[in-house]
Amino acid sequence: MLATLVIVCAAGLIGAAAQPAAVDQEPNANATSYATAADPMILELDARLAPQGLMVAHLVIPARPGPFTLVYPKWIPGEHGPTGPLGDLADLRISADGNALTWSRDPVDMYAFHVDVPVGVSHLNVTFNVIENGPEVMATRNISVVNWNRTLLYQNDTNSHDVYVKPSIILPAGWDYGTALPDARRTADRVDFGTVTLAMLVDSPLDCGRYYRHVPLWASGSSYAQLDMFADRPQDLDAPADILAAYKRVVPQALAMYGARHWYNYHFLLTLSDAIGFEGIEHHQSSDNRGPHDFMTNPQWQLASGDLLTHEFSHSWNGKYRRPYDLTTPNFQIPMQTDLLWVYEGLNEYLGQLISFRAGIRDPKLFPEQVAEAYAYLDNEPGRAYEPLIDTATGAPFLYQARSNYPSLRRTAGDFYTEGELIWLDADTIIRAQTGGRKSLDDFLRAYAGPPNTGPVTVTYTRQDIEHVLASVVPYDWHDFFQRRVYEIALHPPTDELARAGWRLVYTSTPNKFEENPVEKEINAWYSLGLSLSMNGEIRDVRYGSPAWRAGLSPGMKVVAVNGEAFDNDVLTYALTRAQHTTAPIDLLTSQNDHYQTFAVNYHGGPRYPHLVRIPGRADMLAKIAAPLAP
After folding, report:
1. Is the pLDDT of residue 19 over 50?
2. Which of 87, 262, 278, 405 is the least buried, fewest Cβ under 10 Å from its Cβ?
3. What CATH number should be reported for the domain holding residue 555?
C-alpha cells in the first residue's frame, strides 16, 4: 500500500511541474469577453493553399496578463455532438509583441490550450494550419468548404454571443465565394466582412471555388435567397431549367407553410464533388450542402435526394429559430442534450420532404412511395424490439459517429429522422381528421415558428411547449401520443396513420422508386433475404431473424456468386424470382479475409419491395398533404 501511495504522489508531482493543472470545473459561459464590438478578435483565413488541402488561420485575440486559456470549438451546432475536428489543427503558434510564448494543452480537456500572457500585453497573435482533408474531405483542387469553427480558438468560458470577431479570407486566385456573412468588401482576392458575434460566425459557413454559379431564387424588398454552387467541373453547374425552376419555388412554399421568415438573406451553399461527398448541415441564414458532381444535372439525384436543400432550409425555422432549450448552449464547449431531436430533426425530416414535393423538385404523386419506403424500413428494424426512439435521440452524439456492424440491431441516429417523419405525418393526419380538413400541421407550424418576420434569433422550447401549441390547434391527448410513439418501446410503427390517410402498405416484386437511391448505391434485399448489399456485393447489414441471418451470413462478407453465377443485381433478382417455384435454397458464395464459403438461404417469397395502395372509399389525404400551397 505504501508503494502505491508513493507512486501516485510521485506522478502528481511530476505532472504539476511539467504542465499547468487540468481544468477542474465544468465549462461555463460566465467569463467577461475581452473581444468586444470595439476591440474584436481578428480572424484572417489564408485559403490560398486550399487546393492542396490546407488553410492558415491568423488570429489577433484580445487578452489580459496572467494565466489565459484558449479553446477550440468542440460541440458544433447542427452536428449535435462533440465533433470539433481537433486533429485538423496543426502547427499552433502563439506570440505577443513579436515574442513567441510557450503554450500547453490541458491534460484533461484536450480542446483547451493554456498560456501565460506577459505584463503589458493586451493581444495575442495566434497562427495555425487548418488541415482540410482528414477523415472528412473538405477541399479539392477546385473547391473548399470553410466551416469557421475549424479555423479559430477563442477565450475560454465566454458566451459566444458576447465574443466579437472581424473575419476575412484570402482566396486562391480566380476563385469566388458564397456566404451569409454581412458587409463583404472584396479587394482582389481578399474579402473582408463586417464584425459579427462568434455565434454568428460559426453559424455562417463559406464555400469557395474555381468553378461557380450564383442563381437568384427569390427576392422581396431588400431580402433575397440565392443558390451558390461550386463544382469540380464547370459542366456540372449547367442545371436544367426545369430543376432550377423547382428550386425557385422552394422559398415561396416554405413561406406559405410557416407564414413568416426569420432570416434577412439566405444562401443555399452547394458543392458538387464526388470527392467531398454527401452532406447537409443547417445554419440560420444559409446551409452547407454537399452533393456528388452530377447532383444538379442528373434527375435521378433529385428524385432520391431532392430534400437535401429543403431539409436544411426548413431548419432555419425549426432548429435555428425554434430550438430545444437543452440543445441551446451559450458556447461550443458546453455539452448539448439531444433528447428533443425527434422534434428538431424528426419534424424537419417530414417538412423537408413536403417542401421538396410541394415545390415540384419531386413529383407530388410519388409522395406515397416515399412514405412506403420510410415505413417499411422501420417496420422491419429488429432493434426497435428493445430500444425506444427516445434512446436514439438521447444517444445521438455517439450514434452519429457509430460505424459498427448490425446498425439495424443497434438502431441509428437516422431513426429519429425517419420515424420522426412518420410521427409528424401521423400528427398531421390527426389534425386533418379531427377538424374535417379545416386545419393541418401547417397551422401548428405558423403558431410554433411563424409570424412575425424576424432576423436570426432563437426561441427555445420544451416537450411541454410542443404539446401545448399542438393542443391550441386541435384538442387531443398529445402527451400520450408522443409518450407512445417516442418514449415507449413499439415493435412496429402504427398503421392507423396510413389508413387514416386512405392508404395501406403492401409488398410487390416491383422496386420502390425511392429504393433506387444513387446516394447509397445499394441493392435492397432487406425485405426478402434480409440483406443490405452494395452494388459489388459487400454485405452492409443482415436483418436479425431473417433467412440470411438463419443461414449464417454477416456484415463484412462479399457475395461473389448466386447459384453459381457471378453476382450482380439482375442475377440476384432472377434467383429470388426462380426460388418461388422450387424448394431448393438460394446458394450465395461469399468471400471474406481470403476465405470462400457457400451459404444456403432458405427463402421462397420472391423479390419484395414496399408500396402504398389506396383503400377504396377513403379520401386521399396524402395527395392533399403533398399538394403545393398557395403562396
Report:
1. no
2. 87
3. 2.30.42.10
Average pLDDT of the segment spanning 114-139: 96
Question: Which pLDDT belongs to residue 9?
Answer: 31
Residue 159 lies in a domain: yes
pTM: 0.94
pLDDT, residue 211, reads: 98
Q: Contact 568/534 with Cβ under 8 angstroms?
A: no
* Size of the chain, expressed as the number of residues it contains: 631
Which value, to the nearest 10 degrees, does the dihedral of the CA atoms of residues 398, 399, 405, 410 take?
A: 120
Helix (H, G, I), strand (E, B) or coil at 229: strand
Collect all residues with Cβ–Cβ distance below 8 Å to 219 and sequence separation of at least 6: 225
Which residues does residue 76 pair with via DSSP β-bridges, in sequence order? 81
Domain enclosing residue 552, as ranges = 528-607
What is the pairing mode between strands 196-197 and 206-209?
Answer: unpaired
DSSP string, 576-612: HHHGGG-SSPEEEEEEETTEEEEEEE---S---EEEE
Helix (H, G, I), strand (E, B) or coil at 614: strand
Residue 421: enclosing H or E segment and its boundaries? helix 415-434
Does any domain span residue 303?
no
Write the DSSP assignment of 426-483 as a string of letters: HHHHHHHHHTTTS--HHHHHHHHH-SSP-SS--EEE-HHHHHHHHHHHS---HHHHHI
Q: Is the peptide bond before 452 cis (omega within 30 degrees of 0)?
A: yes
